[in-house]
From TrEMBL:
Coiled coil: none annotated. Residues 12-245 form the ABC transporter domain. Keywords: ATP-binding, Nucleotide-binding, Transport. Belongs to the ABC transporter superfamily. PANTHER family: ABC TRANSPORTER ATP-BINDING PROTEIN, TAURINE IMPORT ATP-BINDING PROTEIN-RELATED. The keyword Nucleotide-binding applies. GO terms for molecular function: ATP binding. Pfam families: ABC_tran. This is ABC transporter ATP-binding protein. It is found in: Cell inner membrane. The keyword Nucleotide-binding applies. InterPro entries: AAA+_ATPase, ABC_transporter-like_ATP-bd, ABC_transporter-like_CS, ABC_transporter_ATP-bind, P-loop_NTPase. Gene3D superfamilies: P-loop containing nucleotide triphosphate hydrolases.
Length: 264
């Protein structure tokens, strides 16, 4: 496994994590003994085919699902429950409260968790909204916003909480291609400005290379780690470069080969 060397302690440690969930018919093993370390300010991408347990793993990092084997630690402390130090941005556009304005939506998690003094929450919300370019829409309601704008609000709401790690579960997957590309670029610009720590789930190789400084490649169900790759040199490069295409093909062959094994 190719890894990047770090001298600092991990922000997040995933150690031998096996996750299961129940359906009406059976117990499903989503991941099998997954291990990796994430460091502060990482743009860390979990990449794999649909059904490989990426989103389930993100839920466990969020504290919503307890591993049946292994453990997940944040700043050295085992994760046992949800907390404001881990905020999740989902794929669905309906994650905003429809009866609240953009400003009220961004303030809501701070108010409901008691995070920050009441007198400073609105100011923090306005700063976050400005960073995602929606200052003119603070009084707008979600139904008046486009899909990309709704995702900007969701990102602002999460970042206003100043979480230790921002968890993003395929947040751009439901957007049209041009909006998705613009949101990817805006997320990179936002990261360059405020340097937050992020775990981003996707099954798009191109999106993973564009957004990540580190990529974990996972097998089909049940998800296991097959490679950890350094993608730093591609973060701001144009996707048409020869080096980018070669890296794309390398990852594609990993995923394609694993799928062939699974299907064979």
């Amino acid at each position: 496994m190719q890894q990047t060397n770090h001298s600092s302690q991990p922000l997040l440690g995933v150690d031998g994590v096996t996750l299961q969930y129940a359906t009406r018919q059976q117990i499903v093993t989503a991941t099998h003994r997954v291990s990796f370390d994430m460091y502060e300010n990482d743009r860390f991408v979990l990449l794999g085919p649909s059904g490989c347990g990426k989103s389930t793993l993100l839920k466990s990092i969020g504290g919503f699902l307890t591993p049946v084997e292994g453990e997940i630690r944040l700043n050295g402390q085992r994760i046992t429950r949800p907390g404001p130090d881990r905020m999740i941005v989902f794929q669905e556009f309906d994650q905003l409260l429809p009866w609240q304005t953009v400003l009220q939506n961004v303030v809501f998690p701070m108010r409901s968790t008691g995070r920050f003094a009441a007198s400073e929450r609105e100011d923090r919300a306005r700063v976050a909204i400005e960073k995602v370019g929606l200052s003119k829409f603070v009084d707008a309601y979600p139904h008046t916003l486009s899909g990309g704008m709704k995702q900007r609000v969701a990102i602002a709401r999460a970042l206003a909480m100043e979480p230790a790690v921002l968890l993003m579960d395929e947040p751009f997957a439901a957007l049209d291609a041009l909006t998705r590309l613009r949101m990817q670029q805006e997320l990179l610009d936002l990261w360059a400005e405020i340097r937050f720590s992020m775990i981003f789930v996707t099954h798009s190789i191109e999106e993973a290379i564009l957004l990540a400084n580190r990529i974990v490649v996972m097998t089909p169900h049940p998800g296991q780690v097959i490679a950890e790759l350094d993608a730093t040199r591609f973060s701001y490069n144009h996707t048409g470069s020869d080096e980018f295409l070669a890296f794309y093909k390398q990852i594609n062959s990993m995923l394609f080969g694993q799928q062939e094994v699974a299907n064979g």
